[in-house]
Amino acid sequence: MKETILSLTPQYWEDYELIDTGGFEKLERFGSFILSRPEPQAIWDKSLSSDEWNSMAHAIFAKEKNNPEKGQWIEQKKIPHNWQIKYNNQDQVKLILNLAMTSFKHIGLFPEQAVNWDYISDTIKKLPVKNPKVLNLFAYTGAASVAAKAAGADVTHLDSVKQVVTWSKHNMESSNLNDIRWIVDDAMKFIKREVRRGNKYHGIILDPPAYGRGPDGEKWILEEQINEMLKLCAELLEPEHHFLILNMYSLSFSSIIAANLVNSNFKEVNNAEHGELYLVDRFAKKLPLGIFFRFRKIK
C-alpha cells in the first residue's frame, strides 16, 4: 500500500522568520528582534557570512563547551527580556518571549509547531461537542493550550516545571483568554491517575522531550516510556469524537516510528497523517524540526 509522508511548514507567520541556517546554527527574527542560536540539524554551510550574522543579531546564544543546550544569551543590541509576538491565523494567538528565564537556548516558542496549532483550532471547531475537553501533556509555555482555548476547548495544561506553567498563564492572558486548568505534575503519574478516575478527553496533545525530569525528580526517557504513555492515552481518549497529536523532536526517531506506536496502541485511527515539520530560510534551505503523527474522528 502506498503511503504519503507529509512535510509541513506554517503558513501564517508574520512576526517570525527563519533568516539563515548552517554551521550548526540558525538566525531568526522574532518580531523586531533577531537571534542567533545553536541548531544541531543545520549541518550545511551558512548562506550569509559570519560577519553578516553578527551585524544582524540582537542577541547570540553562547553555548557551554560540553552542553550545546546550556549557556547564556549575549546581547549585542538593546533588546527587552520580554516581548510579545502574534501568530496571524484566525484566532490571532499572542505569545510572550523571554531571553532571561532560563540558561537554555529556548525562548518560549517553537515556531514550526504553528502547523499543529492550526490543526488543533480547525479540529476543535469541527467537533460536534460544545467545549470539548483537551489535555496538553509536556505543554511547555502553552502555545498549543492557548490555541485550543481560543478555539473553544476546555483545556487542561500539564508541565512538570512550575516556572513555565506561570509563563503559560501569561500567554493565555496576553491572548485575552481565561480558565485554562493548570497542572504541575509528572505526566506519566497524572495520566495513570486520570485512567483510574475514568476521565476522558476529546483531544490529547503530546510533545514529549527526549529526556526530562518530573517535579520530584521522576525520570523521563522517550524511547523507554512513550509506548506505555500512548497505551494510557488510548484509555483516556473519548471513543466517538476525538483527536490526538504526537510530536517528537529526536534525531533518532522517524514519523514511521510514531505511526507504529500510535497504530499499535489505538483501536481506531481515523484520518491519520504523519511526517516532518520544517521551516524555510530566506535561501530556500529547509530545516527539519521534528516529526508528528496526528489523527481525528470528527463525525
Give a short summary of the structure:
With 299 residues, this protein is an alpha/beta fold. The protein has a domain at 109-297: 3-Layer(aba) Sandwich (Rossmann fold), CATH 3.40.50.150.
Task: Explain how this protein is built.
Helix content is 26%, strand content 34%. It has 299 residues and is an alpha/beta fold. It has a domain at 109-297: Rossmann fold. Helix 4 (162-174) links the parallel strand 10 and strand 11. The model has no long low-confidence stretch (mean pLDDT 92).
Proportion of β residues? 25-35%
- Give the overall shape, derived from the CA principal axes: globular
Strand runs, count: 17
Q: What is the alpha-carbon Rg in Å?
A: 19 Å
Q: Which residues sit in consecutive blocks of at least 5 with pLDDT less than 50?
A: none
The pLDDT mean sits at: 92
CATH topology of the domain at 109-297: Rossmann fold
**Class from secondary-structure proportions:** alpha/beta
- Fraction of residues in helix: 25-40%
Summarize the helix and strand pattern as letters.
EEEEHEEEEHEHEHEHEEEHEHEE
